[in-house]
Design a protein that fits this description.
By secondary structure, the protein is an all-alpha fold. The chain is built from five helices and no strands. The longest helix has 17 residues, at 40-56. The chain is flat and about 70 Å long.
Length: 105
């Protein structure tokens, strides 16, 4: 391992591994992460008050989504035919097919 290499030992000195496993300190955890007090009753009342407001408001009109590449021209290469040719034929015939159908640029 790297800790036993000569350069590491010269710079860092001998390294000791963990002697005892880490212990979970619940008290320290509570100090660093205090629980928020729950106010269940006001939340229920607030939700009941907000519900009628939502019903009164008109629903927002939904935007129609268009296909992301609809502005581009249709491709000249039929991908299904290309896959069939590429998988089923020997490489010489594939090269002829590619020369005939694939357009540069």
């Amino acid at each position: 391992t790297i800790k036993n290499q000569e350069e590491v030992l010269r710079n860092l000195g001998p390294l000791n591994l963990c002697v005892k496993p880490a212990q979970f300190a619940a008290k320290l955890f509570q100090q660093n992460n205090p629980k928020q007090q729950k106010n269940a009753a006001p939340k229920k009342e607030a939700a009941k008050k907000e519900a009628p407001k939502k019903e009164e408001a008109a629903p927002a009109p939904k935007k129609e989504r268009s296909a992301p590449f609809s502005s581009l021209p249709a491709p000249k290469l039929n991908m299904d035919d290309f896959k069939r040719q590429y998988r089923n034929e020997p490489s010489e015939e594939n090269q002829k097919y590619n020369d005939d159908t694939i357009v540069d640029g």
